[in-house]
Specification:
Rubrerythrin, domain 2; mainly alpha; 51% helix; 3-stranded antiparallel sheet; binds acetyl coenzyme *A; Cytochrome p450-Terp, domain 2; Citrate Synthase, domain 1
Length: 430
């Protein structure tokens, strides 16, 4: 696009390039603005800032569109396996049968985690939050795979690291869970597919002939796919920015896990169930909590509602809403929490406060309900999100490096004191 944007500031006119993406998204390129004029832009929370050009995920919040590498989330959730989607996100194309077989085999060969890592997991107090343990353990993996420390855009090495992370994260997550509930850990079972193996490691008793329920395994596959990438969200931006300092894939993913943990991001799925439990314990009056969410004096927010980019509906939530009903029916579960969730959803969707602010249920509103139905404990929900988001983090890390993006280092508008003299202790006021 040869069109230019004109910015007039402090009496000076500055010409800026205008760029357009393949989905006609228009952006003003300000990367040379400071050099041209000494002026910077300010945008807290990066609400209006494109941090990169990316070819991985497209989403349109107004129209409720989400596509990975051009394929709709609806089609991928229905037809693909999680590992197919991981390959697609990271490599750019759907895998051939041979490529997928190799990936599955390589993952099975790398699921075992070093015995000394097991000892580290065992040393955490059983009250440790699984997200903290997971972030620490991913960071600790660098000690056992030191070649990962100096990334050099070597595709073979990146492939191996991707395989190791995809293979070991479920093992570490399941070990953390088993340790926290005081049960012996299970080693991976290479005879099982990715999701069934995870369920086996989480739920099996030693020497039992545990078989994952196919409905549960399928539901987990869908959940992982729906969470696999979401362009430049908080945790992904963290992964890219950490990676931009030349930190390893593992260090970057560990930081991403930390960012995902917060209740305004991935931690919302845990917060949703805790909120629903609290409403139930308080008599089940959804209206009371809607009123609290609207009260500006009350810090309470309706967890699982609202989204930074979806201002119409979240297509992942639409898939999961239907899925939650199907899964609960298929598993014969009647959950009073679900009734409260439905009443909350209905009340909020018809309330002017939520309509005006375009606050709709997001993916976390329904994912928590399904995880609960699948028998996954509440404090593991965000870990499940991390397992799903892993391919997205790796894909974005690789893209950032392949594009030779500069180190992430925003500027600021300083609002503190101007220079002042040091005051000796005797001269300071109490
Ligand atoms: N409950 C009540 N009011 C809300 C909520 C909510 N969940 N979310 C936003 N609002 C209100 C705000 O108070 C604000 O009102 P105002 O304009 O009168 O001041 C308005 O809606 C806009 O809110 P912002 O915080 O500016 O929106 P932002 O885009 O920054 O935040 C966010 C998005 C963080 C997701 C927010 O909606 C929220 O806190 N939701 C609850 C937590 C949650 O579910 N997070 C998961 C997100 S999905 C994910 O990460 C996978």
């Amino acid at each position: 696009m040869s069109e230019k944007a004109i910015l007039k500031v402090k009496g000076k006119e500055i010409e800026l390039d205008v760029i357009e993406g393949t989905e006609q998204e228009v952006a003003v390129d300000i990367s040379k603005l400071r050099g041209q004029s000494g002026v910077i832009t300010i945008d807290p929370g990066y609400k209006n800032t494109g941090a990169t050009k990316s070819a991985i995920t497209f989403l349109n919040g107004e129209l409720g569109i989400l596509r990975y590498r051009g394929y709709t989330i609806e089609e991928l959730a229905e037809k693909a396996s999680f590992l197919e989607v991981a390959w697609l996100l990271i490599g750019g194309e759907l895998p051939t049968k041979r490529q997928l077989n190799k990936l599955e085999k390589d993952i099975k060969n790398n699921q075992i985690v070093h015995e000394r890592m097991k000892k580290i997991v065992e040393e955490f107090p059983s009250t440790a939050h699984p997200m903290g343990v997971l972030a620490s353990m991913v960071s600790a993996l660098t000690a056992f795979h030191p070649t990962t420390l100096n990334p050099n855009n070597d595709n073979k090495e990146d492939y191996l690291n991707m395989v190791k992370l995809l293979a070991k994260l479920p093992t570490l997550a399941a070990w953390t869970f088993r340790k926290n509930i005081g049960r012996p850990i299970n080693y991976p079972n290479p005879k099982l597919d990715y999701t069934s193996n995870f369920l086996y490691m989480m739920n099996s008793c030693p020497n039992s002939d545990y078989k994952a329920d196919p409905i549960v395994a399928k539901a987990l596959n869908v959940l992982l796919i729906l969470h696999a990438d979401h362009e430049q969200n908080c945790s992904t931006s963290t992964v890219r920015i950490v990676g931009s300092s030349n930190a390893s894939m593992y260090a970057s993913v560990s930081a991403g896990i930390g960012a995902l943990w917060g209740p305004l991001h991935g931690g919302a799925n845990q917060a949703v169930i805790e909120m629903l439990e609290a409403i139930k314990a308080d008599g089940g009056d959804a209206g009371k909590y809607i009123a609290k969410a609207k009260d500006k004096e009350d810090p309470f927010r309706l967890m699982g509602f609202g989204h930074r980019v979806y201002k119409n509906f979240d297509p992942r939530a639409t898939i999961l809403k239907k899925y939650a009903d199907d899964v609960l029916k298929a598993l014969g579960i009647q959950d009073p929490i679900l009734e409260i969730a439905k009443s909350l959803e209905e009340t909020a969707l018809n309330d002017q406060y939520f309509i005006d602010r375009k606050l709709f249920p997001n993916v976390d509103f329904y994912s928590g309900i399904i995880y609960r139905a699948l028998g996954i404990p509440t404090d593991m929900f965000t870990v499940m999100f991390a397992l799903g988001r892993l391919p997205g983090w790796i894909a974005q890390w690789k893209e950032m490096r392949a594009n030779h993006e500069p180190i992430g280092r925003p500027r600021q508008v300083y609002t503190g004191y101007t220079e002042r003299g040091f005051v000796e202790m005797d001269g300071r006021k109490e």
